[in-house]
Amino acid sequence: MINGPPGKTGGPLSYPSGTLGFMDIVIRPVAPGEYETLGEITAQAYLQDGLLTFGESDWYLGELRDVAKRAAASDVLVATQGDQLLGGVTFVPSPGPMADIAGPSEAEIRMLAVDRAARGRGAGEALVRACVDRARAAGCTGIVLSTQPIMHAAHRIYERAGFVRAPERDWNPIPGVDFTLITYELTL
Per-residue pLDDT for the chain (188 aa), expressed as one digit of tens each? Predict the structure, then answer.
C-alpha cells in the first residue's frame, strides 16, 4: 500500500507488488524521528552487501546515514509494515543537488536500501514502483538510476519495473579509482 497520491497525504492505496500479490507494506514520506533509523538501515545494507569500496572508512557511509540532508533536498520515502521500518529510497523529482545523472524532465532514484532481515517481502519493489508513480505524477519523461554491477537483486527489481540498461550513461563517481556505476532508465 502507499499513502495517497505522490506528494500528498491521505488514505492508503493498495496495488500489487510484482508477483508477490497485495502486500501490507505502506510507502510514505520519512518522518524526522525516523532519520537516524533509516540512515543506519541504509548504511548497514551497503556495508553488509560489500558495496562500499573502503568499508567503514568509506566517505559515502556518511552520505548514506545523512537522511536529514537528503530529505531537505529531495523526497525520502520509507517502506513500513506494521510499526517496522523496512527500508527507504531517495526520490529526486528533477535535476538538482541530489541528482547524479538525471537530465531535464527526468527523475532519479538513489540510495534504495532494505534491511537485510526484511528482504524478500516486496519492500524494495514497492519503493521503486512508488518512485515511478511519483515521476509520472510529476510529468517526468523518464526516470534514471545508478547501481553497482554486483547489485543483482536490485537489478531484478528494476527490470521487473520496466527499467532497461543504458550503458551509454554508465559513469565513474570517484575519479582516479576503477569504480563504474551502471545506469538503468525507464521512459515514461
Answer: 444 333 433 333 344 444 344 459 999 999 999 999 999 999 999 888 777 665 555 668 889 999 999 999 999 999 999 999 999 999 999 888 899 999 999 999 999 999 999 999 999 999 999 999 999 999 999 999 999 888 888 999 999 999 999 999 988 877 776 678 999 999 99
Report the run of H or E that residue 6 belongs to, with start and end: none
**What does pTM read for this prediction?**
0.83
Residue 11 DSSP one-character state: S
Residue 113's CB: how many other CB atoms inside 10 A? 25
DSSP per residue, 110-175: EEEEE-GGGTTSSHHHHHHHHHHHHHHHTT-SEEEEEE-TT-HHHHHHHHHTT-EE-GGG-B-SST
Q: What is the rounded distance in angstroms from the CA atom of residue 149 to the CA atom of residue 154?
A: 10
Q: What is the CATH number of the domain that holds 110?
A: 3.40.630.30
Q: Which structural domain, as residue segments, surrounds residue 76?
A: 2-187
Give the integer Cα–Cα distance in Å for 102 and 122.
Answer: 26
Q: For the chain, what is the domain count?
A: 1
Three cell numbers, residue 149 = 554491477
Amino acid 66 reads: D
Q: How many CB atoms lie within 10 A of CB 94?
A: 18
Residue 144 cell numbers, joined: 534514471
